Amino acid sequence: MDIMKGRVDALPNEMHKKKNIFIFMTDHQRVDMAPPFHKCLTPNLDMFMQEAVAFTNMTCPSPHCCPSRATFFSGLYPSQHGVWNNVMVGNTLSRGLAANVRLFSEDLRDAGYRLFFSGKWHLSNEEGPESRGFETVYHKQTYTGIQSAAEARIPDCSEWAYYERPLCTEDTPRGEGEIVRPGYPRYALYGTSETPFDDEQVVRAAEKHIGEVLPGVEDPWCYYVGPLGPHDPYFVPQRFLDMYDIAEIELPDNYHDDMMDKPELYRKTRDRFAQLTDQEHREAVRHFLAFCTYEDYLFGRMISALKKAGLYEDSIILYTSDHGDYVGAHGLWTKGLPCFMEAYRIPFLLRIPGGKHNEVSDVPALLADAAPTILELAGIQVDRPMTGVSLVPYVLGGQLPARREYRFTQSNGNELYGIQRSVFNENWKYVFNGFGYDELYDLKNDPGELHNLASDSRYRDVIRQMVRELWRFARQTQDTYINPYIMIAHMPYGPGILLEEERT
Length: 504
Prior knowledge:
By secondary structure, the chain is of the alpha/beta class. It has helices at about 45-50, 65-75, 80, 105-110, 150, 200-210, 240, 265-275, 280-310, 370-375, 390-395, 460-475, 495-504; strands spanning about 5, 20-25, 55, 60, 115-120, 135-140, 180, 185-190, 190, 220-225, 235, 315-320, 350, 360, 365, 385, 405-410, 420-425, 430-435, 440. α6 packs parallel to α9 (about 280-310). Mean pLDDT is about 95; it is low at about 1-15.
């Protein structure tokens, strides 16, 4: 896959006029929890789908909020933008974007756009959306300011305050949906809340602003609304939970995977959730579905606000998420280093006035495509390289420059550090695990990723080809996992196989 430069050549003349752009990004939403899959109730998205293209083969670069959000805004992968994990925690690898990384919001601002922000940012602990071109409508996070290299290396021990509250003990009784961990705070995977994560406040503030301020904005605008749901723990308003009958909830087909052929860390992670009964897992699925329906309701309110303000018809609208959620797949919940597709495939529904509508596309796409797509829609041409490519030509009735054969993921671990890289195409998926043995899945015959074939010598040529593509992508994206030292160079084939290929 080539790293492309952003272009606007595919836009018809009438599209070069600057368009208003509205973005709604959820957190932890899996691709099949949005149209066209109908696994949960999404009446507002179903109506929106009639005017949009649903990219059902869209993947994120990392199963984690911060690196994926940085990719969304920059068009780059973690090895390029420098955000590898949660920038807010004490043992973070990076607290902000690498130097000289530019976001699409800055290009929009410099091109005369007004940008508005309500909700979750979470791609830097050093600077907020205001530093990158946005005007804040509703946002709670505070920032350290850009830190020197020396400051950034000072450990942040503030999380010790968690342990001043009541903690679980060996004798703590486990309540429904709870996971007891002696010496840690209580954790309930699901429950009820009328205002989960302040998402109501995020949307209410945006509604008020759209109704009272946005109609008077003369410049073109870009509006970003970022609720925090359906992130775990899955606490949802009771009225949305009541829409689902527990008797009709089924567990995933791969729920009973014992993972004995997979890295030990995967089993260790799954064992955290093994305290839950099958019925509790079903309840967790029910709560997650209800949470997605709640987010659909909030999205519907945003659409209504735009229509009421007379701003809907000519606006470009994008609905997406930062990464997925296992939702019980392989007995797992939330997201993390288990490199299963449930955590990487996300919804991406794009409405362009005058473009394709009510269409489902299986074009292999990346969350990195969002930035060049938005820039092209705004008529902005940039000359810096991006890993993503614009999806605009496809939505306007044409084709993408070239269909991707391979896609890639990059993770250095969600604070439980471990180098992990994966590459996949329509047939195969290879996962390199620096912390454990590798994985190979036959996606055609085993889409649930139940059978790890990496140790089977019959697939050595497949692994060699996939590793070669990993190294090719690593070179293109300045990934520095190339140190040849004997204790850390555990890829089955080193970067030199690229040079070998070039010589022959």
